[in-house]
Design a protein that fits this description.
Length: 177
């Protein structure tokens, strides 16, 4: 199963650059390609893709679409002029609301995955910190100014960091270090 999923992942990565030309949701395709490693890893370790893997996959997909939409907001005018597709163009005036909903869904999916895995307060603290960072990003994109949208996009490495730190601290302090 892992080998089959790896082949599919390779096709996803190789075909992504072409999807910007005709697919109105290239950020979703990117999210699938980026997050395909989750079911691959589960399949390699367990021989299956259980529900937690699917939930984590969805979290990664939603997060990727959210942050890459903010990146697409930077180039929206140029993309419209040259005919490149993006979620920023597709979502139009609803872009900020849709990004906010995807951020909330990302956090919910991460919470579900953590809950199913028995993660505790430290992990949830990491998610709370991520929520604060998401709110900051939403504040940055409020006027759709390209530089602020780019800053919001770049801010996402901090989101990943605080979730990771919360998870690491949860493992450290809940397993006796």
């Amino acid at each position: 199963l892992a080998q089959l999923l790896t082949l599919i992942g390779g096709v996803l990565v190789l075909t992504y650059p072409f999807f910007k030309r005709f697919f109105p949701l290239p950020q979703a395709y990117l999210g699938i390609a980026f997050t395909w490693s989750v079911p691959m890893a589960y399949a390699a370790q367990t021989g299956a893709v259980p529900r937690p893997a699917i939930v984590m996959f969805m979290a990664g997909l939603l997060w990727t679409v959210a942050y890459d939409t903010m990146y697409a907001m930077v180039d929206r005018e140029d993309d419209e002029r040259i005919g490149v597709k993006s979620t920023a163009i597709l979502f139009g005036e609803a872009d900020r609301v849709i990004v906010a909903v995807m951020m909330a869904m990302t956090l919910f999916a991460l919470w579900l995955a953590g809950n199913e895995a028995g993660r505790g307060e430290w992990y949830r603290g990491g998610l709370a910190a991520a929520a604060i960072l998401f709110l900051y990003e939403l504040w940055l994109i409020r006027r759709r100014e390209p530089q602020a949208c780019f800053q919001a996009f770049n801010n996402n490495h901090y989101v990943g960091l605080v979730v990771f730190v919360g998870l690491a601290l949860d493992y450290l302090y809940r397993t006796g270090g």
